[in-house]
Predict the 3D structure of the following.
Amino acid sequence: MAGRIKAEDVALVKERASIEDVVRQHVTLRNAGPGSLKGLCPFHDEKTPSFTVRPAVGSYHCFGCGEGGDVIDFVRKVDHLDFTEAVERLAVSSGVELHYEEGGGPRQGEAPGRRARLVEAHRAAAEFYGDALITLGEARQGRDFLRGKGFDGAAAKRFGVGYAPVGERT
Ligand SMILES: [Zn+2]
């Protein structure tokens, strides 16, 4: 799995991606004074524009619901993406080549949702294969093999040993 996107690439994406262009794909903006554009907020229902973009600063803010941030925050929220996905999408549209940290260090501030889903998927899979080892008739050979090696059920569970039913093998 790819590691974290390098910080300098994230900075480059922020610099190159025009928040005005990105927001205009979702919101009709009109001039609202020097350096400021206004439109109807995509994050809450409103009839009078209180969603403000400052292209020079690279930020947006809604005075109605309080949403605000930079171009990456906007893409995350409007398209329901995690940080990495939002940066990847903006990198494509702004022509930035991304580099990733090697070693997959802590992905702090990034994609906690994706990590949690992966952990849950692994846990569910381990449980499924663990149950299969204990309960399935076709897993008897596996059980006998483990018992022959001195593994009882508790040890199999502790080491996360499971059995993949024939139909579930990939
Ligand atoms: Zn709003």
Observations:
- The domain at 7-94 is CATH 3.90.580.10 (DNA Primase; Chain A).
- The pocket of zinc ion is lined by residues 41, 43-44, 51, 62, 64-65, 67 (CB under 6 Å).
- The chain has a mean pLDDT of 86.
- The chain has two domains: 7-94, 112-164.
